[in-house]
Amino acid sequence: MRFRLTPRETSFYDMFAASADNIVTGSKLLMELLGADTSARAEIAERMRAAEHAGDDATHAIFHQLNSSFITPFDREDIYALAGSLDDIMDFMEEAVDLVVLYQVEELPKGVEQQIEVLARAAELTAEAMPNLRTMTNLTEYWIEVNRLENQADQIHRKLLAQLFNGKYDAIEVLKLKQIVDVLEEAADAFEHVANTVETIAVKES
């Protein structure tokens, strides 16, 4: 790690950790959605919406701190990228839940639970990794595993698309379900963007 002669603004670390913890909350709501009957989904969507708003607040706090700080813990563009990618994850998860409710989906296709399990694991890893930005230690295994999970998510997504287009569903249902599984795939991609940004920061700081 480079030796620095200037002090650094350290509140960013706490804000990134809080943002990642909020993503864990979102992933748990996704898991809850899987086991809920249709009558309970609207209430879960409301809680997810509140979590997404909390994520927005966390992102705005980071940007505000960045704009008011002369010295930052690492490059400004990396702080923007990391905060933005964390925010994207919550946006995609909230969108997926909202679509399930708005489209009045009776039953999600088999395989969606695997998508959500991957997201939940990636959320846990991300929350565990954020505090380590302070010391830039124990991060390599994090980004390697998140990249592996994203590859797994890709495979699950392709199998889900094949299932949707096998003739079992009518055309309108295919459109609805495809949009939901696509958004969940975008959430997996956003986790990888976070991990890649962390890797970039760690390389610069080494």
Strand content: under 5%
Distance between the termini: 4 Å
**So how many helices?**
6
H/E topology pattern? HHHHHH
Poorly predicted regions are 1-7
How many individual β-strands? Answer: 0
Taking Cα atoms only, what radius of gyration do you get, to the nearest Å? 18 Å
**Can you give the mean pLDDT?**
93
The chain-level structural class is mainly alpha
In one word, what is the shape? globular
Largest sheet: none
**Overall helicity:** over 70%
Chart the SSEs and their pairings.
Blueprint: H1 11-35, H2 38-68, H3 76-102, H4 112-129, H5 140-164, H6 171-205
What does this protein look like?
This is Phosphate transport regulator. It comes from Streptomyces hiroshimensis. InterPro entries: PhoU-like_sf, Put_Phosphate_transp_reg, UPF0111_domain. Belongs to the UPF0111 family. By secondary structure, the chain is mainly alpha-helical. The chain is 78% helix and 0% strand. The protein is built from 6 helices and no strands. The protein has helices at residues 11-35, 38-68, 76-102, 112-129, 140-164, 171-205. Helix 3 packs antiparallel against helix 6 and helix 4 packs antiparallel against helix 5. The longest helix is centred in the last third of the chain and has 35 residues, at 171-205. It is globular and about 55 Å long. The N and C termini lie close together (4 Å). Mean pLDDT is 93; it is low at 1-7.
